Amino acid sequence: MWRSESTSNPGRSRVGQVRTSDSACARFRHSGRHHLSGAVTPLFACRFVDLRGEKLLRGLFDYATIGGYGGPLMRHNFSSLKFLAIALAVAFGWSLIPGKLACAAAPPPYQLTLVEDLNLGSASGLSSSGLKPFAVLNNQLYFGATNGATGFELYKYDGQHVSLAADIYTGSSDSSPIDLTLYQDKLFFSARNSSGIQLYSFNGTTAQPVQSYTAEPTGLTVLNNALLYSVQNTAPNNGGVGLNKFNGTTAQYFANIGQGNNFIVNDTAVFQNRLLFEGFAPGTGLELLQTDGNTVSLVADLNPGTGNGAPGSFAVYNGNLYFGASSGGTVGSKLYKYDGTTVSAIASFDTTGGPTSLTVFNGQLYFEAFKFSTRSEIYKYDGSTVSLAAEVSPGIPTSSPHDLTVFNGELFFAAFNEATGYELYKLDGSSASLVADVRAGSQGSDLNDFFVFQNSLYFKADDGAHGTELYRLSVVPEPSCAVLTLIWIFVAAIKRRR
Description:
With about 500 residues, the protein is mostly beta strands.
């Protein structure tokens, strides 16, 4: 079915803002002829959409196919082959004109699929959550999983099948690969083997240990052609957290970011050729630090003194780095902006530990934040003003949205509603709609770790019968405008010749 599209919500239409024209439909409905009747009528009881007011081409098309007792294509008794050739030319030519004519389709339907019940039965094949659990190498999706026979090992998915990529800790023991990161055409990650904890590399065939540690390397990030990461208990003298780097050949420690404290770095950002992350500086709690790969410096003490600012959920928007952090005092947390020189507060919120899940969508910055008036919901920032974007669960309880992810031109996320529990939602203008109820009922599927791969949205979820497994949300393909036009012309001609 073709239909007109409102301009009030351009994010929902794959053809952008459109202006409808009633001329073709009006001629179709009021021509007084019924050679396009019966089964054809419902398919084309619609509007043609003219994006830029190009009436000439639309008029020619109307004249050729609809006008009078059939247009010229309908009045002449072309042979089937000649007619098919003309119809193909019209349809194909129409489809090649960018921005002139398009049909405004309804928001695309989505299909939810359990990729594979990797660990048969109610046992989980994937861990419920992890640090950077997905990565792509050679157009294959890698993640940690178990089939019940192996421990949690490195698995891969090629778009068709899930298979074991590397059994690092042989037998039923878990290697538990985490923080999967692409560097120099290889996957790097933290994992365990019979000798202990290692930084590993994987070239698509073989997993090789790079360096041994007493704790998991975390926060793996590529900066200036080196792989940077943190490891607990590796800083000299005080046993704090050490910042390390690997240049493709040698791994080495280069800075102390723990100051006698142990913590896990799990959120980083590369901005203006520097790595930003949370860490301890002398006299501070967990605050915003930066490094060029050689030295470390304090960017801002967001929660003055020894309180923790705990900055995280970084996102670059309009050339600046945004993040959430606790600010201390009477204000719980703030949305901050860093321009490379100065950190400034954008908006205040009513609890510590936010805002989170910062994501750029449709030219605005979206995120989760908490206010007493709305609880935890989705907010947006347009460069000047912060406002509520959508309330999934008005009032109490809170919806606590997370994993905000842009897919197929729409914003998806996990959120809580009393009727569904934690399930898959998407933003529809100023409201949110349920996309999939993976686990029917109010318990929820606790979905998380969203990742876009091969034009589909992947995530972990538990449907109540299979444990936590890998799911895929795909767009159901629709016939193009050119194909529908060809069908219309062809069927119309057949009915005319009868």
